[in-house]
Amino acid sequence: MDLTALRSENPDHWNKAAAIRALTLDAVAGANSGHSGMPIGMADVATVLFEKHMKFDVSAPKWADRDRFILSAGHGSMLIYSLLYLMGDAQVTLDQIKNFRQSGALTAGHPENFLLDAVEVTTGPLGQGISNAVGFAMAEEMLRAQYGKKVVDHHTYVIAGDGCLMEGISQEALGLAGRHQLGKLVVFWDNNNITIDGQLDLSDRTNQVQRFKASGWHVQEIDGHDPVQIDAAIEAAKKTKKPSMIACKTHIALGHAAQDTSKGHGALTDADQLKAAKDAYGWTGGAYQVPAEIKSQWEEIGKRGADARAEWEGRFAELSQQKQDRFNRIFALEAPKKLSATIKALKKQVSESQPKVATRKASEMALEVINPIMPETIGGSADLTGSNNTKTGDLGMFDTDNRKGRYVYWGIREHGMAAAMNGMALHGGIRPYGGTFFCFTDYARPAMRLAALSKIPTVFVMTHDSIGVGEDGPTHQPVEHLAICRATPNTYTFRPADAVETAEAWEIALTSKETPSVIALTRQGLPTVRTEHKLSNLTEKGAYVLAEAESKRQVILMASGSEVSTAMAAKDLLEAKGIGTRVVSVPCMELFHAQDESYRRKVLPAGPVRVAIEAAVRDGGWDRLLLGERGQEKKAGFVGMEGFGASAPAGELFEKFGITAEGTVAKVQELLG
Amino acid sequence: MDLTALRSENPDHWNKAAAIRALTLDAVAGANSGHSGMPIGMADVATVLFEKHMKFDVSAPKWADRDRFILSAGHGSMLIYSLLYLMGDAQVTLDQIKNFRQSGALTAGHPENFLLDAVEVTTGPLGQGISNAVGFAMAEEMLRAQYGKKVVDHHTYVIAGDGCLMEGISQEALGLAGRHQLGKLVVFWDNNNITIDGQLDLSDRTNQVQRFKASGWHVQEIDGHDPVQIDAAIEAAKKTKKPSMIACKTHIALGHAAQDTSKGHGALTDADQLKAAKDAYGWTGGAYQVPAEIKSQWEEIGKRGADARAEWEGRFAELSQQKQDRFNRIFALEAPKKLSATIKALKKQVSESQPKVATRKASEMALEVINPIMPETIGGSADLTGSNNTKTGDLGMFDTDNRKGRYVYWGIREHGMAAAMNGMALHGGIRPYGGTFFCFTDYARPAMRLAALSKIPTVFVMTHDSIGVGEDGPTHQPVEHLAICRATPNTYTFRPADAVETAEAWEIALTSKETPSVIALTRQGLPTVRTEHKLSNLTEKGAYVLAEAESKRQVILMASGSEVSTAMAAKDLLEAKGIGTRVVSVPCMELFHAQDESYRRKVLPAGPVRVAIEAAVRDGGWDRLLLGERGQEKKAGFVGMEGFGASAPAGELFEKFGITAEGTVAKVQELLG
Question: What are the Transketolase-like pyrimidine-binding domain coordinates in residue numbering (chains A, B) (predicted)?
């Protein structure tokens, strides 16, 4: 391709964009891995966006009212690293560019929010960024409604590729953004007709323009290499009240021998071709060299937002002290001081009144006292509000004419909900929680993993957590999902036994700063097992002695959730036979593993027969507590599920699968010999 | 709503449809659970479809050339049960209707393909059925191309609701169907404006007509209660070469007090309202009673396809014996006799030549010899063909002008691919396999679970199976995914150590009739560890002694995949110190657990120190082999991952996380004391 016209028409622009292209070529060649084509193809869009529109101060990448930039096509990470280096970001030094994708570098293969302050969100798994962005834009609307546009008033910009748009989650994101008229969300589609397997046409012929319009978006089509068109399109996008998609026709790996080919998508490392491309760009800098004039132009761009930030700080200072404090508190993810006392009061009341309620109802009871004191919570459900018990009286519905509403009807979009919640939390100022059936963890799973990986304290409210679902049958009955959540690093998997443990789980989830929580809750009613009020949060220990043996201790029963009351009933039967039985409640294995050995030994001493009861597969971490922690194979047993469930009334299913007090007693007696 | 006009305009039709409505009301009331609104709302569409269009013989629900009917909105299961009972299905007796959702009934809460022959696919998790249907329709195209339209020529009909269309996976299905012009796929959208949370409008305002058109579909909008419009729309849908969507404007729970409300979506059990609805329908039958005349009309409908089937059998008999045998073989999921010898020959050649190849490459080597002898395999990849090594030379690309092509470019649609593969396998005559990165198991997960639950032997080719991914970093490095697959019932999780085990895994996967397989494969090269040719398939044992201790046996090292060669290297180091070390390769835990105790004891005798090595979390089933199976906590150790990975060259990551021969030796020595 002859770049002469492009170069001559807008030489200043061209050189700034060429800096991104040259750095990308050098870094990918240096790493001998990575993706060259996308940063090269989208360099013009990124240059215009940062030069003319992004409200961004490179010296304060965490400034609350900055515009957000999300690289949904995260494999093109050199685009963001180039931008940050060129603008003078404190973290992305030239050394970091030179160490692209190397051990210990902040410039990882995909952009990681936990490595770089200026990276809003970890992207890489396609479709996530554009869906996170919906959450960012919703958070902005919500906070603007609460604090006024003098304090909150910014855009969310996204670069997405064909991969992002082919992933199903993107449709969920489109639908949400359209439904809620998220006018400050602007998506650039890198429309380059190329995927890894070849021409896009091999796998897709969707009319994306028509598709976005069907979801209520404002759509423009432009030449993605023409800075004038890019600028005008962004201007128009900022004006419309709809979410905007700008289809940018681009050439992947522009000016390189691999331009417009799937090879261009990957790592372009050939030295001669690299030189030829730089020549075509008119680039005079050597490897990793950016001519001083161009670097200084970019550094000016990095400072463009400094004045706006100073003015913002002035306006922020005009807020009441109380508002400032609250704003700072919610952005710091600090729970309000009242939370602890509120939870304690609820626990006391529950221990006294001892209601028999499903833990999903117990969760609602907790939220009824939490939501009024935590304005930063945003609730929601994937079309199961009445079943998930996620809506409390005071929240109000988030809607186009009620941006202060704190409850989101996410629709039948578990994945989009989870990703948008991650985005809300990463935006700052919001603590999102959202519900679905525990079985549909499967749908939300890619976003749940990213919450764990990128340290986002999203709360997943997962009701209907076992065969207790009953008649809906095995498709709706989780058996392996506790195992899935527990195997995922940096995830709290709570399965509370009653309303007290449920309140304790919520307290931990809402004070967590870097760990997401899954709260698995029953459909069916459960008795209160924590009948004696304790000030301390026992769930924080992960597992604890709920009931001590009355006769000589021969048995330890361990259980979580609905099976804790089964264990208590089994204990009664065993004690009646003179078999002393301790019951250990295990609401959160991850937290138990984090305790020191002396505590763990106190809870699980060597010697007694151990039987664990959980209406799920044993693979969910039980071997570690049955056979490890001083256990012995010949004295250990499990009462739970060995396969999928079935369709029948719940009570019959527990009988059918032997997850009963009697089944537990039989297992204990078999082990006692 | 006044139903008088509807009743009087088409009285015969009305009564037939009313039978579905009345049975639905009775069965849901009897079960005191279920979903009434959808079967009632879509009764007219279903009646016209079966009366005038479905090629279906109730006496032969597995006839290969029948039209397929897929209830994607599976919660409306009483629709399908009513139809089957009315038409005289041998399994769905009146007793089954009376036992709807009860223990042991074939009429489960959601339709289960493993309970009823006439249920094509287990549905319930929304969005799956419509995506399975894409696989059904692709399978029909493929087999029609292979066998001719005299033998294969049928439609796939789907009923989908708003939930199905809001789930992201539906967009992947739409894109695939549009791209491949699946003209024999017809989707009825139950356009009733209601979801569980209330009016659809609460969560979605998508213009579905425009959206389907954007994906290349033929779209019609009709009154879903007008049999004339329904009939005409189906006629038109059958004529177009595009996939068809018929938007059926319906009233959920038509004629019931809960009509047009979200309450109507659920279980309508009020006796008075039930009676009022039946009165409005002009229904004279008592509970579970269908007037004889109406029942007999429905039974005629059930027999409509009998002649067509007889004619088909005549045409089938005209095929060459060889073609008939192959057709019968592939529909019976029987592998060709040659498969076993082919695998053995490959194993022998590998054991002799001892290549150092990535197991993803080894998988390609296996497919290169398998695909030519198994015409029923259909390969594909979610836009990672060159990385997943799933395409062999002979397959050809499935395309609109090459329906004989056996390779599908699925695009960046892991979920849609997995669901469509399930559909292909359930259609019959196809053994689908498809590739993506192992980490993106997450995206495909809901369909992978359904493969396990509904006993579909789909093969998931999951490459880049650990931190061996290298520079792409933690978003692309699975650590918990082996645990996820192993915790899922009825799933073979293979992680082969070299090209021999890879060939063995493929043999098991392609002879499995009821269990899906996940084959986890490396990106990086691995030495051949099976250097001595064995005729028998050792992978079938799940775990086996790969190398016996030379000195006195003090240690057993267990490993899978890439870590088996690490174990072998550690053994060399230990033996050099005089520490006798057995190496046990564990390519498939599920199969090892299925062995009898004497075999398991032979492989894992009590006594020696045991160390397991796997570049993944210990939760992936290792405790059972380390601490169970006669193991002891104080003599057991694990070398693997404790959290997420990082971005760096792969070799450096194995060093960083200590997953090396030296790390293993250190762990062993610590345990030996």
Answer: 357-528
CA distance, residue A510 to nearest chain B CA (Å): 23
> Residues 88-147, chain A: which have Cβ within 8 Å of B?
101-105, 108-110, 112, 122-127
DSSP collapsed to 3 states, B487-537: HCCCCEEECCCCHHHHHHHHHHHHHCCCCCEEEEECCCEECCCCCCCCCCC
Tell which residue, A494, A367, A489, has the closest CA to residue A438: A494
Q: Give the CA distances from residue B4 to residues B11, B283, B286, B589, in Å, rounded to whole numbers and listed in that order.
A: 10, 13, 21, 63
Beta strands in A324-383 (DSSP E): 357-358, 377-381
CA distances from A669 to A546, A550, A613, B122 (A): 21, 17, 15, 39
- pLDDT score of B287: 96
d(CA B331, CA B427): 9
Q: List b or e across A311-320, with b for residues whose CB sees 16 or more CB atoms inside 10 angstroms.
A: ebeeebeebe
Least Cα distance to A177 among A231, A230, A141, A126 occurs for A141
Residue B466 CA, distance from chain mean position: 24
Is residue A1 predicted with pLDDT exceeding 90? no
Q: Which amino acid is located at B429 in the chain?
A: G
Q: Is A533 left (phi over 0), alpha (psi -120 to 50) or beta?
A: beta
Does B1 have pLDDT greater than 80?
no
Contact A74/A12 with Cβ under 8 angstroms? no
- Chain A CB within 8 Å of residue B516 CB: no
Across A403-425, average pLDDT: 98
Tokens of B528: 């051949």
B216/A214 Cβ within 8 A: no
The answer to whether the CB of A216 falls within 8 A of the CB of B201 is no
Q: Chain A residue closest to B202 (CA)?
A: A409
Q: Which of chain A's residues have a Cβ under 8 Å away from the Cβ of B470?
A: 33
Confidence of residue A2 (pLDDT cuts 50, 70, 90): confident
Catalytic residue numbers of B, as ranges: 414
Which pair of structure tokens corresponds to residue A493? 């998997």
Helix %, strand %, coil % for chain A, to 5? 50, 15, 35
* Chain A residue with minimum CA distance to B490: A643
CA distance A399 to A407: 9
> Mean pLDDT over residues B57-64, rounded?
98
Identify which of A300, A298, A299, A257 has the alpha carbon closest to the alpha carbon of residue A279. Answer: A257
> Which residue in B has a C-alpha nearest to residue A489's C-alpha?
B643
CB A554 within 8 A of CB A498: no
> Is the Cβ–Cβ distance between B566 and B559 less than 8 Å?
yes
Domains of chain B: 4-126+155-307 (3.40.50.970), 338-526 (3.40.50.970), 541-672 (3.40.50.920)
What is the Cα–Cα distance from A452 to A607, expressed in whole angstroms? 36
Tens of pLDDT along B115-157?
Answer: 999 999 999 999 999 999 999 999 999 999 999 999 999 999 9
Tokens 């398998």 — which residue? B370
Q: Any bridge partners for residue B641, and if so which?
A: B617
Residue range B28-43, pLDDT digits in tens: 999 999 999 999 999 9
Q: What is chain A's length?
A: 673
Average pLDDT over residues A178-188: 98
* Beta carbons of B474 and B644 less than 8 angstroms apart: yes
pLDDT digits (tens, 9 = 90+) for A361-377: 999 999 999 999 999 99
Q: Is the pLDDT of residue B361 over 80?
A: yes
- Average pLDDT on B441-464 reads 98
Structure tokens at B620: 């992936």
Cβ contact B565:B531 at 8 Å? no
